[in-house]
Amino acid sequence: MGGEHCPWIIKQRPGQRINLTLYDFGVTRRSSQGSVCQVYAQVKERGLAADITICGSSVRHKVVYVSETNLIKVSVSDSPYDTDPVRFLLSYEGESQSAEAPSERVSRVIVYC
User: Fold this and answer.
1) Tens-digit pLDDT profile for residues 35-90
2) All structural domains of the chain with their residue ranges
3) Integer CA distances (angstroms), 15 to 20, 55, 67, 98, 102, in order
4) Burial environment of residue 74 by CB neighbours within 10 A (0 to 12, 13 to 18, 19 or more)
5) Which of 46, 79, 106, 109 is the most buried (most CB within 10 A)?
6) pTM for the whole thing?
7) Alpha-carbon distance 46 to 26, whole Å?
8) Assigned CATH for 8-112
């Protein structure tokens, strides 16, 4: 569940965006790997020319994507060849786009692997 064949669909009310945040627990292991992207997930959103790749980060906590619409699909990397998996957590928040309530947070759910 959550992989390429069964992605997570995150949907907010119309007029809201989705802030996707990565909590990366593999930061200390990655310091010696240089700039190689360890793929954690792919984000698809209608209207984008290409998928967004979420890579391991050099910091523990980082906003990795803010949607343009109220619906995204997230496919978590599920490589069966990864013998030393890294632990991470993806969190999302719905946020209003209206001028009257620009910082209103509408919902929060945590999705983890």
Assistant:
1) 778 889 999 999 888 999 999 888 899 999 999 999 999 998 876 666 667 788 99
2) 8-112
3) 17, 28, 11, 7, 11
4) buried
5) 106
6) 0.75
7) 30
8) 2.60.120
